[in-house]
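Structure first, sequence second, as always.
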């Protein structure tokens, strides 16, 4: 991996003389007060503007400001006209467009595609303040407002839709969002490096169309550049013959015979002489090689090719060895440069220590923004995740190499919160990131890490090359809670427990000092079938962690509980798997308040499984492993119902399923049975009949719920609301 340019090492843009804005301006009046006649960059975002490093627009804005650029913010504009898009005038360099911290479809719809009534990123949590597919809509409006201004899209929505991708909400494979948004450049992954380089180069007079070699970007290209070695992805991982193209004259359902033996030419584009086409390249040539993925049209028509493309994309995701990817859409190529080089600790510190106001813009007055409320006393200590859970796409976004801040920088941020954030009572609600305990963990060897192509460092077991030393994290926790004015430091990010048990000392530290009565952890399932498709550890690790957790809680004289989370309807899950899980939940006295069904979010490996029925964790061929997919509302509801076996509303559907599965023996009032044969009248569910009560609650111990984490019977443990929702 070549060394990257330091992001704080650029010569500042001339407008640095205007200094630091208390908040980045959202109006002309604010610009006037700052003495600006124009903005160099305007960021349009689907979230309310909170000037805090947990919000992408603030990070990107403040990083650009530190480079000397004047940055304005247009937050949650009315997208029905261009009026809001012209509020700050035309930017001198470019519009930066993001849907916000989340994909707008994930944000707006539940996993059953119902519209959510709320939006944590909007004042008062109000829903409906951003359009579906925000990046596309905003980019179009910005283009209408100022035709000549370059458009750079970024943030999670753009990042995870950078290539042809399955879209759960329209049930089809959509084109790269770059083309639908008609943007000039797409920034993917963490954006600091790219955005600095883009801004400086545009300021120096370079045309946006000439920025084509920047890591972590994608752009559209017609024709092929000279000097590149092109490798057909299907030579790297051969999926077998293509599905025959449809013959318009064939009778319905009869395939076109002539096309049946079509060779697999994933590129399906005419070859030009400027490029060499090869099967294998030497290491020395990797920098000039590009992998041609099957075209958008091909992957849209053929789910097996789609799974193949997903596998290739994931294989080519380590910045140490990833090659550029190219995918044809109609007559245009979408070219994806390799991922950005991770930020160093010094750079991370610099990014997180910009002069954030740590509050929502005054424009919002007293209105509360729930996402801000949840993180205002928490600190991000790292980015990235090497877990590789297939249903989560954080690795596809932030990468597998952990980017950590220094302890000093984290401690300084805690002091900032203590000294400046109104309402701080001495409790830090989280020190975390995508996971709680990957801080400073890495491969033991830089060389090995650079060459590695495994999708996870902890699955199927912990890689012997992974350094699992939790000492720096333990030290950080100790220093944080020793700071004057800090009474408690809670850990609310997800603990990777298979990793944590490698360090009993960490589990002790966590359990005895950083748990507020309940600790949420996510086994996600207990059966090997679904776990293997999720790339999650077996229950052995859970039990070991629980033993340690219980032992250390007792040692500290604390009554504390683990709250396990599970996913329903994940690819690879059978009805029997869910039944086993329900029986386990009942045996262990767990009752879930809300449960989560698998959401096929853009670019996740499990989404490729969901769409294709294939397993991209292994080599894909036409005959490779088929995965069971619980698809459709009926089965998804059933799987959720198993998780909420105690809810009388679910009993009819569960009874029917148990009979169908030949497990009618589990219906009845016995202790070992799952649900009663008795059905209370709907209105009377509150006044539970005896059978219902028995099924719902084993009497001896408190029953805990997922999500709220609150016990159903009074307990001595302090009841507190969880600080963070789950990921
Ligand atoms: C903290 C957090 C929360 C907090 C909110 C605070 C916050 N600020 O987000 C809370 C607890 C409220 C929360 C809730 C939820 N969250 Co959350 N959250 C996070 C988390 C861990 C950190 C967010 C953060 O610090 N972002 C800051 C910056 C660093 O990240 P970024 O937005 O990606 O920005 C970078 C780039 O994208 C780029 N960039 C950003 N903007 C722009 C703009 C331009 C122009 C350019 C060029 C580049 C660019 O540069 C930035 C710097 O590198 C992220 C995971 C992560 N990112 O680490 C999940 C994450 C955002 N959450 C997620 C989810 C699913 C949820 C929930 C739905 C969970 C649930 N099941 O309930 C809820 C949603 C609530 C709702 N809709 O009402 C998902 C979103 C998935 C998706 N595809 O959209 C994420 C990615 C986690 C995951 N593992 O998948 N969350
Ligand atoms: S060799 Fe092991 S620890 Fe190193 S990057 Fe690869 S999977 Fe991770």
């Amino acid at each position: 991996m070549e060394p990257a340019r330091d992001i704080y090492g650029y010569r500042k843009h001339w407008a640095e003389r205007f200094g630091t804005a208390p908040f980045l301006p959202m109006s002309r009046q604010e610009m006037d007060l700052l003495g600006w006649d124009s903005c160099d960059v305007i960021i349009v975002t689907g979230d309310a503007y909170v000037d805090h490093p947990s919000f992408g627009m603030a990070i990107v804005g403040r990083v650009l400001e530190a480079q000397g650029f004047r940055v304005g913010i247009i937050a949650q504009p009315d997208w029905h006209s261009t009026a809001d898009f012209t509020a700050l005038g035309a930017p001198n360099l470019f519009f930066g467009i993001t849907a916000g911290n989340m994909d707008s479809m994930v944000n707006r719809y539940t996993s059953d595609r119902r519209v959510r009534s709320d939006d944590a990123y909007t004042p008062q949590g109000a829903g409906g303040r951003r359009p579906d597919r925000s990046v596309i809509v905003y980019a179009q409006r910005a283009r209408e407002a100022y035709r000549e201004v370059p458009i750079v899209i970024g943030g999670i929505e753009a990042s995870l839709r950078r290539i042809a991708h399955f879209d759960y909400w329209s049930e089809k494979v959509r084109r790269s969002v770059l083309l639908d948004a008609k943007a000039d450049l797409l920034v993917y992954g963490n954006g600091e490096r790219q955005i600095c380089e883009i801004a400086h180069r545009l300021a120096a007079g370079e045309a946006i169309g000439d920025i084509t070699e920047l890591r972590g970007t994608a752009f559209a290209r017609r024709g092929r550049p000279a000097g590149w070695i092109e490798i057909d992805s299907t030579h790297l991982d051969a999926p077998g013959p293509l599905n025959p193209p449809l013959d318009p004259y064939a009778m319905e359902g009869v395939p076109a015979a002539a096309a049946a033996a079509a060779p697999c030419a994933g590129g399906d584009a005419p070859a030009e002489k400027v490029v060499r086409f090869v099967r294998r390249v030497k290491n020395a040539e990797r920098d000039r090689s590009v992998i041609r993925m099957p075209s958008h049209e091909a992957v849209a028509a053929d789910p097996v090719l789609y799974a193949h493309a997903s596998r290739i994309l994931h294989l080519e995701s380590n910045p140490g060895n990833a090659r550029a990817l190219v995918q044809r859409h109609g007559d245009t190529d979408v070219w994806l440069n390799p991922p950005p080089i991770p930020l160093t600790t010094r750079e991370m510190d610099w990014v997180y220590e910009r002069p954030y106001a740590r509050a929502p813009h005054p424009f919002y007055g007293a209105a509360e923004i729930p996402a801000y409320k949840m993180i205002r006393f928490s600190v991000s200590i790292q980015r990235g995740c090497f877990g590789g859970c297939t249903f989560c796409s954080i690795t596809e976004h932030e990468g597998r190499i952990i980017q950590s801040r220094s302890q000093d920088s984290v401690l300084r941020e805690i002091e900032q919160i203590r000294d400046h954030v109104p309402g701080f009572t001495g409790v830090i609600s989280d020190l975390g990131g995508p996971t709680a305990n990957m801080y400073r963990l890495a491969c033991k060897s830089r060389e090995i890490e650079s060459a590695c192509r495994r999708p996870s460092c902890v699955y199927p077991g912990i890689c012997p090359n992974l350094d699992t030393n939790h000492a720096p994290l333990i030290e950080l926790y100790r220093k944080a809670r020793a700071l004057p004015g800090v009474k408690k430091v809670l850990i609310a990010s997800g603990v990777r427990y298979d990793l944590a048990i490698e360090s009993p000392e960490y589990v002790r530290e966590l359990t005895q000092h950083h748990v507020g009565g309940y600790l949420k952890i996510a086994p996600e399932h207990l059966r090997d079938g679904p776990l293997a498709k999720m790339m999650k550890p077996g229950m052995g690790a859970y039990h070991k962690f629980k033993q340690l957790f219980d032992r250390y809680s007792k040692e500290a004289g604390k009554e504390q509980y683990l709250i396990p989370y599970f996913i329903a309807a994940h690819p690879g899950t059978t009805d029997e798997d869910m039944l086993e899980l329900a029986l386990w939940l009942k045996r262990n006295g767990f009752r879930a308040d809300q449960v989560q069904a698998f959401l096929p979010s853009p670019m996740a490996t499990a989404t490729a499984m969901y769409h294709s029925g294939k397993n991209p964790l292994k080599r894909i061929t036409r005959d490779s492993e088929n995965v069971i997919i619980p698809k459709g509302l009926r089965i998804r509801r059933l799987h959720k119902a198993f998780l909420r076996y105690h809810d009388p509303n679910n009993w009819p559907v569960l009874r029917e399923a148990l009979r169908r599965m030949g497990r009618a023996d589990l219906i009845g009032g016995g202790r070992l049975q799952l649900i009663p044969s008795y059905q209370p009248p709907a209105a009377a569910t509150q006044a539970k009949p005896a059978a219902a009560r028995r099924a719902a609650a084993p009497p001896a111990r408190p029953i805990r719920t997922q999500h709220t984490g609150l016990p159903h019977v009074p307990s001595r443990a302090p009841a507190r609301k969880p600080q963070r929702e789950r990921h």
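Margin note: The chain is about 30% helix and 15% strand.
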